[in-house]
Amino acid sequence: MTITKGTTVTETAPTTGGVAISGLTLGFGRGEARKEILRGIDLVIPAGEITGLAGESGSGKTMTGLAVCGLLPAGADLGGSIRFDGTELIGLSQRRMNRYRGAKIAMIFQDPTASLHPMLTIEAQLIDHYRYHRGASKRAARTRALEMLGLVAVPDPRAALRKYPHQFSGGQLQRIAIASALMCEPSVLIADEPTTALDVTVQAGILRLLRRLCDELGIAIVLVTHDLGVMSALADTIAVMRMGEIVEHGDRHQVITAPQHPYTKSLIDALPETDTGSLLHDASGSETAA
Amino acid sequence: MTLLEVDGLQVSYKLPGRGTLRAVDGVSFDLEPRQVLGLVGESGCGKSTLAKAVCGLVPTSGGSIAFNGAPIGKLGLRKRDPRLMRIQMVFQNPFASLNPRRTIGSQIEDGLRVNPDRDAWNVADLLEHVEMDPASRTRYPHQFSGGQRQRVAIARAIAAGPELLIGDEPIASLDASLQARIAILMRNLALETGAALLFISHDLSVVRVIADDVAVMNAGRIVERGPVDRVWTAPQEPYTQRLLAAIPVADGMGRLPGAA
Predict the structure, then answer these.
(1) In the A/B pair of chains, how many CB contacts fall below 8 A?
(2) Would you say the ipTM is above 0.85?
(3) Where on the phi/psi map is residue A156: left (φ > 0), alpha (ψ -120 to 50), or beta?
(4) Nearest CA to B68 among B37, B117, B116, B32?
(5) Hey, is A51 helix, strand or coil?
(6) Mutate to test the interface with B, among A273, A275, A280, A281 (most CBs of B within 10 A)
(7) Looking at the structure, do residues A97 and A193 belong to the same domain, yes or no?
């Protein structure tokens, strides 16, 4: 399963804007101390679709997302291929990668209070990277920022631009983080546990927003989450990861209702809330933990 | 005998400028020994304030809290009534709740010193119970991940031999796929040591897994309380119904939950 850097990719190219990952390997360290994180990932992320990455802590789902963004920690030894819009991303210089990251490929994370700078205004955080990538005037950048804040439904965008992150609730901050990610019209959005820190009612709003962005703007979204409820609501296809491999990838409905791999089955069986939905199990409540 | 009795509790905060915010507005509930109560609600509903009041960490402005029949007052500089040390708390942020300059072993020993049953535990036992290597006792908090630090915070709370363990969003700052595991660990440890658990969380699906009873809080009041299964299958209050309807169901249908 190990394909090294430079291997020709025979896989069909994705539709414009998507990402094709093939034979992706990732390890840290050398010799006996080497830890394999990803063991040959093949995944096509098409435009206008939400591709879910499910799996437990340490399964490699976050690392797969970071690899696409070129944000892996130092010492990462990456192999295989990540193709975006006809370009091979693996092995790109930081300078060339900067043209993609934040512009064509954007990301949002679990904790919006950590991804926004506490001492900069929302305006600065929305327009800086836009001006860097587009060479736009301050005025044009501000217009774009207002437009994006409107798109993600932040109330009173004009006033919001002058505020600081601590003046917003977690849900509003995640909307602002999404607005920031959308500034440069990305074709790929990596969303790593985007609603885990939020209340369920707020989460519902963010899920609807992501769905709308995917449908209206044709963005390819990678949804990384351990929450199969969120996955089932939002993802079009679900890839289940375990120990650095994709054990199953299929249509959302098939993966959840008729999982093929025993590991996927065990994940679905462990769900506490299934009785409210598909009636796979009756209410077992606290017995699960006892 | 009832372990914890909260009656008509009110807590107010002064707002900048003028005015006050009534964060907890007439809350009454009780907790039996060895019972696991999940307290859920959206951010800003007053659930953390309620937990702090039960520990004596915020002054109350009305109502009463009794623990084993003894009233709980505001925690001050004087030595705390030893009976009230049977309440232990695990906070949201394990990066802030542990002293960065002391080894985790010595911080767990702090808990052991207030335990009336001196031989109940030792540090190595406790670390094993929270699924950590006993040899790690000589290390410092910064050498651990968030999940491991929260395990240390749980070990320290259990070390004190609590009759009531309170978790105030103890899993919210952890890696998403670890959250349920730590919550289940808290439940199991509380019950194993004979403590009751008041588990506060905005994560309804985790509360569902670990709690016997659930109390739903909204705007400073408890709007509904009952056994977890009853509240989940037949919520009585419109607020609870709305909250539960917002949880996405893993049925593979691609249905987006109703937005608030």
Answers:
(1) 143
(2) no
(3) left
(4) B32
(5) strand
(6) A273
(7) yes
Q: Is the pLDDT at A282 greater than 50, yes or no?
A: no
Given a contact cutoff of 8 angstroms between Cβ atoms, the answer to whether B37 and B212 are in contact is yes
Q: Chain B residues with CB inside 8 Å of A283's CB?
A: 229, 232-233
Residue A24 and residue A99 in one domain: yes
Question: Which range marks the domain in which residue A173 is found?
Answer: 110-183
Which residue of chain A comes nearest to B250, CA vs CA?
A: A229
Distance from CA of B161 to the nearest CA of A (A): 21
Same domain assignment for residues A162 and A268: no
Residues 6 or more apart whose Cβ sits within 8 Å of residue A162: A121, A122, A123
Q: Pick B243's closest partner by Cβ from A200, A230, A277.
A: A200
Q: Please identify, among A183, A208, A233, the residue that sits at the C-terminal boundary of a domain.
A: A183
Residue type, B194: G
Q: What is the pLDDT of residue A264?
A: 92
Contacts for B237 with CB less than 8 Å, ≥ 6 apart: B216, B223, B224
Q: How many domains does chain A have?
A: 2
Q: Which residue has the tokens 């802590």?
A: A57
Verify whether the Cβ–Cβ distance B209 to A229 is below 8 Å: no
Per-residue pLDDT at A16:
66
Is residue A288, in this structure, part of any structural domain at all? no
